[in-house]
Design brief:
This protein is an alpha/beta fold and 288 residues long. 47% of the residues lie in helices and 17% in strands. The protein has eleven helices and nine strands. The chain has an eight-stranded parallel β-barrel, surrounded by nine helices. Strand 3, helix 5 and strand 4 form a beta-alpha-beta unit. The longest helix is centred in the C-terminal third of the chain and has 18 residues.
Length: 288
């Protein structure tokens, strides 16, 4: 039997952020297509962050809590994801644990079911602390990311050691290799991914990359071969360029590699057409 690959959709958060300065989408834009996105069969929707919530207020004069509530109600089968970089909310000034706990509690209460947690310095203690707080404040699926970089310090051993350190936590459901610069080469994935997966086994590992220098789709194919079974993509109008690999091409690639997926291609095409029309109407750049 063929193995099934899950897809996390990044269109409304990372796609919008990477190509459209995080300001391209309003509440009506997302709400109009949300029921169709729910039918696609994504594992989750990478939906918002505290920065995006601030943009809702500053640029669109909208209530970001209402956005979460409305879209959550419209997508009952697909968890909405909130990404956080640690002890901050809206501002970049570090905040106390009481404020962060309150923020997490409200985000979860209003409809967010999954958190992706990253720490700029990949500090295990910080990641474990945030994961524990997220779980205690009601988050259903807690996902920790280790941010990929290239330097004398960022060796494969460095990432494996940190994966092993966070694997000890009962509060973390999934681990992901987060490559915001699109720097992962095929060789790096081939060498690192099996060790990364083994360090966190038997829980799932995800891969998140960008197309900034054209490597993202190649990294995804190599990740599949190495054992990764969850990939982060955006629909084509909000993918490629500095954004994530496109869902459509990723699905063709994984099928060519002998894998299957759970996505409804007709619903996916409707989602893609919706965001393409929005981009063309507003003069937003299409992913290329």
């Amino acid at each position: 039997m063929t193995e099934t690959v899950d897809i996390v959709d990044t269109t409304t958060r990372d796609g919008n952020q990477s190509l459209w300065g995080a300001t391209g989408l309003t509440t009506p834009d997302i709400l109009a297509i949300a029921p169709t996105m729910d039918r696609v069969g994504f594992h989750a929707l990478d939906f918002t962050s505290s920065t995006h919530m601030a943009i809702s207020v500053r640029f669109h004069r909208e209530d970001p809590w209402e956005l979460i509530r409305l879209v959550s109600a419209a997508t009952p089968n697909t968890p909405l994801n909130f990404i956080t970089t640690g002890m901050r909310f809206i501002t970049w000034t570090p905040a106390g644990e009481d404020l962060i706990r309150l923020s997490f509690r409200l985000v979860a209460r209003n409809g967010i079911r999954r958190f992706q947690i990253a720490d700029p310095s990949n500090d295990p203690a910080s990641l474990l602390r945030i994961a524990r707080m997220a779980r205690e404040e009601g988050v259903e699926e807690v996902v920790v990311g280790l941010t990929y970089s290239i330097s004398p310090a960022h060796t494969h051993d460095y990432y494996v050691e940190r994966a092993e350190a966070v694997a000890a936590s009962p509060d973390i459901d999934r681990l992901y290799l987060k490559d915001p610069g699109g720097l992962l080469t095929q060789d790096a994935v081939r060498e690192l991914a099996p060790r990364f997966i083994a360090a966190f086994a038997p829980r799932p590992v995800e891969l998140h990359s960008h197309c900034t220098i054209g490597l993202g789709p190649l990294a995804y194919v190599e990740g599949l071969r190495a054992g990764i079974r969850t990939l982060h993509t955006a629909v084509a109008p909000a993918a490629s360029g500095t954004s994530n690999p496109p869902a459509e091409a990723t699905l063709r690639n994984l099928e060519a590699e002998g894998f299957s997926h759970r996505l409804d291609l007709e619903a996916l095409a409707a989602v893609s057409a919706h965001f393409r029309e929005l981009a063309l109407t507003r003069g937003l750049p299409l992913g290329a």
